[in-house]
Input
Amino acid sequence: MFGYYLDLALRSLKRNKVLTALMVLSLALGIGACITTTTVLRLLSGDPLPQKSDRLFYPQVDPNGKQGYIAGQTEPPSTMPYIDAMYLLHARRAKRQAVVALTSGKIAPQRANERPFYSDGVQTTADFFGLFDAPFQYGGSWTAADDEGGAQVIVIAGFLNQKLFGGANSVGRTIRMNDHDFRIVGVLKPWSPQPRFYALDLGGHDYGGDGDAMFLPLKTAIDLKMGPQDLECYDTVTNMDDLAAAPCRWLGVWVELPDQAAVADYRMFLANYAREQVAQGRFSRDETAMLDLVDWLRHEQVVPDDVRLQAGLAYGFLLICVLNTVGLLLAKCLRRSREIGVRRALGATRGAVFAQFMVEAAIVGLVGGVLGLGFAELGLFGIRHQPAEYASLAHLDVSMFLFTFVVALLASLVAGLLPAWRACAVAPAPQLKAS
Amino acid sequence: MRILFQIRPILAALRSHKTAVMLLMLEIALTMAVLGNLVFVVYGTVQRSRVPTGVDESRIGVIQSIGVIGTANSGTIENDLAVLQAVPDVVAATYGGPPLWFTQRDSVFLDPSHGHKLGRVYEFQGSQGLSRTLGARIVHGVDLDDNEIPAVTRYTPTMEIPVLMTKALGQHLFPDGRALGGVIYDSGNNPLRVVGIVDHLRGSITGSPDDDWSIVTEFMYGHQDGGGGFMIRVRDAAQLPEALRAAAAALQKANPGHVSNKTFTMAELRADYFKSDLASGRMLVAILLILLVVTALGVSGLASFWVQQRRRQIGMRRALGATRRDILRYFQAENFLIVSGGVLLGAVFAYALNLFLMRRFELAHLPAHYLLAGAVVLWLLGQLAVLGPALRASAVPPVVATRSV
Output
């Protein structure tokens, strides 16, 4: 039966080529726009660390003063002061924990006649690499003792190793950064989580690029007065050179908690700490927060407004295209009232007529989907040439490929419903009489 | 007037195609809602990209410098500035950055205990000559004077520092209009005394009124070395690229250890600053154009279907004396009525969408003239789309009436 409907549908579509082409084109444009924007949206709202994002948490405390405080209604800020970050680090209540700030440094070239250049980096603590599954090509992380001692050791990214040492194993060699010598202890494989979740709110880019070029112990960076990229002070600063003691917040803390019980314990621990600080008079606010990685990204609204606007717009656009297709399909099917009358008179049930028209709509949808895929590729090609941070990441993957056809079929079947219903409601007798 | 007499039969005819007419109206209404809001969003971006920073943009160039490598040939800012000033056509040079670059933002307070926060302002900090190089217009008070700005070597955390302040910030901090001579505090302890008010100085351009909340401070630099940004201002905008090249070369020559990353003009900086916004705007316009094409195709497709369906009736009307022009007018008037219905519904949709966007994306209220413009565009689009089918209808010969289908 299906084969027969297919044959009928193809005949009918061929009979009015212009109308068919219009339907397919309009549906394809709508689908193309939707798939393009959805791909970008998915790219931007993706999980940068799917294997363990549900075990990574971002604790927050609130060192801000009394001014503007309404108990229970204020949210803790996104970064914390050195004292609190160090307390959480040294407490070792989580499986792994790391403190993070962003920095940049002037790297001297290895060969003569080359110019020094600036590179982005991360000031952090030894657990960082294990915490975030950053893969090593050579060597490994520094030790907790290096953290405490402020050792001048460094982990560099693969691309920096390529640039400085031609990709050779450089562990144990020295690079000069900000006029200080650092001993390389590890070289990373290419590692660039998108978005760069650990850098959110620390004053850097969220997307794109090859990742950070260098990683060095936090204490070392403080000793060498390498300031963080972002700093917010909540009280009068008497000595800006002593960042460790200044009433300023500039550090992010990440912890790995293996199960629900550990999460509950840590929340309790964090809340107790904040209450203690309030009791001691250091804090005025006892609010704490601890979101997991995915919730933290959502909270920080990493997806830019214009991308969300474009995606919403594209779906509105698809709706208009579907309406368009409904109109055209309806026109076609009303014109075939007589044909339907004959089929009904010869014994076809309403269901059969309905099915026939739905098959026709589905064919329009599938062809529209194929063409829409072409438009989506075109759209993504356009996106890749936009000056956005995420531009180079915009590619169609297998799941979006399948999603295109789901959208296409769904859209065309929805569009076909009204015309098919109208078609099967045609009463055969008047149609036969009229001829 | 003839068209008016035709409206009743048109309405009667449309009544027998209720579903199709409703669909078309709905499509036009949605198109209008998207059209109005989108044009509003894009136009807002374009307008924003034209807001001036308040500095002498066409004559300012920046030399980004990492500073000096090695101690063998260390330079001093004093010397660097002298070298830059000696470049032909340069009227002012300073150690400091322009707006839209890495502008620092800090909280300001009216009392030293920081009890009452007044907002976050852009802080333009630099060496002697910063204000001269920026070229911001001073409307009250005086410019910063090289003899009165503190030497960077004598800086203490409590000394008073003279500042310039924008008019907008002055009005915000001192609603009584006594900004000139007033004192504020930033997150450090230094009292900042306002000696002059500048017209405009925007640290960034986001569309928010606090873009124009800025202060300028200068410190006297001498034998210190520094990296970051050097800025020059030239006499003649046409000479800027040449002067900037010469200035970078002079800096390099005077101080071979100087590592200058790049040089750029303020115009280039501005283009770069708005690049991504404008690209996103272009993308929205592309979607919009496709949308209009789709709507036109839909209108046109349905109209040609109706023409085909009514060939017999058209033949009859022709046979009964209607001219080709009458037939043409009939379909044009029909289209106008449908689009008008769509536009009315569309105005409601557009406002609803605007309300939603205002909540989600901090968009402003959609002004009524956008709706009017959207309506005109859709009327024209509808007439354009129906023209082909209507002409085909008017070409139907009267003899069709006598044939059985």
Q: What stands out?
A: Residues 121 and 216 of chain A are 8 Å apart (CA to CA). Residues 2-45+304-434 of chain A form one domain.
